[in-house]
UniProtKB/TrEMBL annotation:
It comes from Isoptericola hypogeus. Gene3D superfamilies: Alpha-D-Glucose-1,6-Bisphosphate, subunit A, domain 3, Alpha-D-phosphohexomutase, C-terminal domain. InterPro entries: A-D-PHexomutase_a/b/a-I, A-D-PHexomutase_a/b/a-I/II/III, A-D-PHexomutase_a/b/a-II, A-D-PHexomutase_a/b/a-III, A-D-PHexomutase_C, A-D-PHexomutase_C_sf, Alpha-D-phosphohexomutase_SF. This is Phosphomannomutase/phosphoglucomutase. PANTHER family: PHOSPHOMANNOMUTASE (PTHR43771:SF1).
Amino acid sequence: MTIDLTTIIKAYDVRGTVPDQLSGDVARAIGAAFARVVALPEGARRVVVGHDMRDSGPELVEAFTAGVTAAGVDVVEIGLCSTDGLYHASGVLDAPGAMFTASHNPAAYNGIKLCRAGARPVGQDTGLAEVRDLAQRILDGPPVEPTTPVEPTTPVEPTTPVEPDETTVSTGSTSDVDMLAEYAAFLRGLVDLAGIRPLKVVVDAGNGMAGHTVPAVLGTGAGLPALPLDVVPLYFELDGTFPNHEANPLEPKNLEDLRAAVVEHDADLGLAFDGDADRCFVVDEHGDPVSPSAVTALVGLREVAKELEAGRAPTVIHNLITSRAVPDLLTAAGATTVRTRVGHSFIKAQMAQHDAVFGGEHSAHYYFRDFFFADTGMLAALHVLAALGGQPHPLSVLAEMYEPYVASGELNSTVPDAAAATARVREAYAAAYPDAVVDELDGLTVAHWDDAHPQWWFNLRASNTEPLLRLNVEAADEDIMVKVRDDVLSLVRRGETV
């Protein structure tokens, strides 16, 4: 039975269980569709492909490659890599890319993150829907014959698939390239750690791809000079079954081992990466988590200072879940800030549109203009190490100035009707707080902040994939945050009034 691809191809990427949802046939169809929708209309002659440590990766890559090469497009396979390693390859090779990973999902899952040449995003509104629809037609009907790739003489709409014709061509070729050393050198060239004070850092790779990339970037595994870092490795063995804990540092339980190890080793800080190592979480010398919003402010201020020194007007992107401290601090430093909806394809689009130097999300995705407007947890980690090592204070003191408010963290509620629950909250708060500012950029945001007391805001968003409502609350103090949090949750879960 042919799978309905809408069940595994969502707003940002492909994600499903192997092989019942994401099989070799599905990967081959997606590869063929990707070549027609993205590579050929852009005149691309090659696609770069990588995969994480999951056992299903090589087989799915092989099938995807068969689909791409059948359309006459070459494939450059870079093998094991982090997602930001794939973005680096797409950027420096100026080729569309496909990363096989399910990030932090359990071992039964795999997925594909797609990008255009130069690591430009492919999301629901930027080509992914067209890839899905064409792949579905390939799966449902007779094989689509490969088409002759033609160098375009006039611009082609990026989401317009090249339709098959009667002319066939030879299949594209495949080649293997190891780009780990070039990736490590590229990142080192963006942040200089040579002059920092010596730091001891515990790194929890979660048996994910950071076990492959950290020795190259922070150590000497790629042949680069040693840095003034004493790296204590935790779970560096690549293992897609995640035998120690899930590779999802957003869940507090998955930080417990790192927090204990930082204290045990008397380390200056700890870093935790997710499965494909594109997100980085930070804990201080006490083992206490540093919020991604604080990291966004810290890194953003460094990038803003660099822009101002160069005589440029800096812009920083942040999603609507990040702390109010982010736009407050960055605006005070001379930056223009742009608030956007949650999701890497949206952030990347805004980054490029505004030529933004940096962007951050509450989920610990960090985006850099100098990294093809793409997200890289490793580059954010280098900035944190540089900031900490460039001054004498511990990380807890350094981070304190970036966390002036109190946040709830993301709270999920399973609801039978997300729209009805959201409407209930909207109506209750409109009646109780008529002076609050309400917007629906991404879900429902209600803010009682500017020139208002008490100061608080919350955002309520429906999950794209599950019957969940996600709540984030921030306030000027703990008591206010707790009250707003509990009131909203009461409305969501039991239909009570404020």
